[in-house]
Structure formats: structure tokens, C-alpha cells
Amino acid sequence: MKKVTSFHRFMNRRPSANCRYQPTCYEHAANCYTHAFLIAPALAGTALLHRLSADDWHRLTAWVYGLGLSALFLISTVFHVVTWKRSHMREVEHCFHMCDRVVIYVFIAASYAPWLNLRELGPVACHMRWLVWLMAAGGIFYVFNYHEKYKLLELASYLTMGFLPASVVASMNSTEGLEELACGGLLYCVGVVFFKSDGVIPFAHAIWHVLVALAAGVHYYAIWRYLYRSPPDRNACGS
Predict the structure, then answer these.
(1) Would the annotation count 205 as a binding residue?
(2) Mean pLDDT, the chain, as a whole number?
(3) Is 28 annotated in some ligand binding site?
(4) Are 117 and 129 in contact (CB under 8 A)?
(5) Residue 237: which of 182, 178, 180, 172 has the closest Cα?
(6) What was the pLDDT predicted at 22?
(7) Domain 23-229 of CATH type 2.30.300
(8) 23's torsion region: left (phi>0), alpha (psi -120 to 50) or beta?
(9) Known binder of ligand: residue 80?
(10) Which residue positions in the chain have pLDDT lower than 50?
(11) What is the C-alpha end-to-end distance of the chain, expressed in Å?
(12) pTM of the model
């Protein structure tokens, strides 16, 4: 019995339907720090891609991707800090919870931007460059109108947006970087298991954060190595 008590001091029980999980103080700390330490590296990585850019189109793409990556870690950190210290900040907490959800859509679209902007695309696949942002806009519309009402639908929309553009990327003439993209995608998928395991696995959300960071790191490496460090392809859609 003592072991159970000691174990569960790091984790609260699962919430009831339509209620949010309330992390323990240990989990709050882990949720904050696991993304806070990545804000500066994300900004530094953005600056590196800017420095390696061959032209204005590459520089713009670097900043779209880099700011999406940095915003993910920044907004996540602020939201979890506010949630931790939320005694008199209910409205602020709700606002940043929405921002936390919105920035995921932006991040997914931004993560595909280098591949869709800098790789050679066919006439049909070329339209995915804009479609991914339309999907992000649809996700943002959902957050502002139906926040937390249909959680499974929200999860399905994240997964659809994450995998649909991958079909276009996988069909590109150059296959360099696809293994890294697949590896990162697998890490995100494993992370979803922990994302839905609050109250079942201690520090589940923090583990989700770590897996997101690892996946983002693998994808950043692929973008740096194959799209910026090496001579980039000219895009068939034009710039």
C-alpha cells in the first residue's frame, strides 16, 4: 500500500468526462521545463537556417518554419506556467490554452513549409503548399468555436493534417530526408499515446513533450541537412 501511495503522489486520478486533468506540482514543473529549455535552441536553429539560405525564398521559408517551431515551445511553456500559477488567472489560462491548441496547427503547417517550398513538386502536389495552411486555418476556426467540446475530433484533425501532406512529400523526385521524416512522424504518433494518458501514466504530458521535442529535432536535422546545407532543388512551382 505504501508503494501505491508513494507512486501516486506524482500523478492525480483521471478526470471525469469533459473535465481537464489537474497535474500534480511535480507534473506541472516537468510540463514547463520540458519545453522551456527548447525555446532558445529553436530560435538559434532558425537563425542558422537563415544564414544558410540561398535566396529570399529560402530565407522566408526558414523564418516561417523557425518561428512556428519556436512558437510551439514558447506558447506551450507560457500556458503551463500560467496553469501552474492559475489561482487568479482563469481567463488568462483559458486564453493560453486556446493559443496552445492553435499553435499546434500552425506548427504542423510550418513544419511542412520547407519540404513543400524548396523541393521540386508536380503540378498537382504543388497545391499542397497552400492547402496545408487552409487546413491550419480550419483547425484554428475549430479552436475558437468549439474549444474542448469534441476532443476526439480535435485529435483526428491534428493527425489528418499531420499525415495528409506526407503523401505529397513522399512522392517527390528526391527521397533524401524521407527516413528522418518517417522517424519523426513515428515519434509523434508514440507521443499521442502519452498525450491521452494523463492520470494513467505519471508525467504522461511531460513525456509527450519530450517525444515532440525529439521528433522536431529529427525533422530539423533533415531540413538542415537536405534542404539548407546541401544545394537546394529549384521548385517546379516557382517562387
Answers:
(1) yes
(2) 86
(3) no
(4) yes
(5) 172
(6) 81
(7) no
(8) beta
(9) yes
(10) 1-4, 234-236, 238-239
(11) 65
(12) 0.88
